[in-house]
Amino acid sequence: MASVARSLTTCIFCKIVKGEIPSFKLVETDLSYSFLDIGPLSRGHALIIPKDHAAKLHELPNEYLADAMPIAKKIAAAQGLENYNILQNNGRIAHQEVDHVHFHVIPKPSASDDEGLVVGWPAKPADKEDLKALQQELASKLSKL
Ligand code: AMP
Ligand code: ZN
User: Fold this and answer.
1) Spatial distance between the Cα atoms of 4 and 12, rounded to a whole number of angstroms
2) Most Cβ neighbours (<10 Å): which of 39, 86, 102, 142?
3) What is the rounded CA–CA span in Å between residue 67 and residue 27?
């Protein structure tokens, strides 16, 4: 069952959903709205937002999440994308600038760092005992959520 959509009068993405500020709309459903990013990392960079104000992913009801990914697939298909990133940032130090959940669809037309998402990936070898302890702790907590 759909939850009652929240909106904030100060939130730029809530204003876009309500048509109070303009956007380059792509597609819309009962639960989601998508549009072109005005500061694109590459041509075709799009955003999908829930029609419900939640700042971060874990605050958003599941039905909005379920609605968003099929739209990401459509936006990728409409552009014939083979290389692209789906990105969703939570929190300032994780690069979230707009505090209303949004999914980026970012075409990666070439390997150049000049277009599309450029990712830092500071991977390190894991300690197997630490992985085991973490797996047990998280699996236990997840089974109760
Ligand atoms: P994030 O850093 O994940 O919070 O991304 C916010 C994104 O929203 C950036 O890519 C901005 O270019 C984009 N953005 C901000 N305001 C608008 C707007 N009015 N219309 C379209 N995109 C916007
Ligand atoms: Zn909002």
Assistant:
1) 19
2) 102
3) 12
Query: Does ligand 1 have an atom closer than 6 angstroms to the CB of 95?
Result: yes
Q: How far apart are CA 35 and CA 80, in angstroms?
A: 17
User: Is this structure's pTM higher than 0.90?
Assistant: yes
> Domain containing 111: what range?
2-120
Adjacency order of strands within the sheet including 84-87: 25-28, 32-36, 46-50, 103-107, 84-87
Cα 104 to Cα 4, 125, 138: the distances in Å are 24, 29, 28
User: Total structural domains in the chain?
Assistant: 1
CATH value at residue 112: 3.30.428.10
Is residue 131 in some structural domain? no
Give the tens place of pLDDT for each residue, 43-89. Answer: 999 999 999 999 999 999 999 999 999 999 999 999 999 999 999 99
Active-site choice (53, 100, 102, 104): 102
